[in-house]
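Sample entry (119 residues):
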Amino acid sequence: MTDSTPRRIRPDEAAVLTWMLTHASSVDGSLDHLLPTVERLFVSDGCGCGCCSLSFSTSERGARRAPIANAVGRSASGATVDVYVWGTNDRVTGLEVIGAGADAANLPPPETLQSTACC
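Predicted structure, serialized as tokens:
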């Protein structure tokens, strides 16, 4: 992000995050308890590389965080991208999209996502 002013999460970002929390948990148990927080999230930062990865203002510097959901999806060009939700048991701290170049510049639509969580 070029502007460091926090902004509300956009509907497309919220849709991907909601899908991830509902269908792609990579931790023991459900992440449904985090769903009510999605619409209240503020994006505090983005990745400088040009991808659409986001950090949320719920992030605390130095706080322990880990991937809590993971999936693969299809970019606008049809390429496979990896998608991770970062967080803790009680908060979502980030949404990461990993792909090659422009493939990671936009979020994959929720209908293209498939969970890669093993259990």
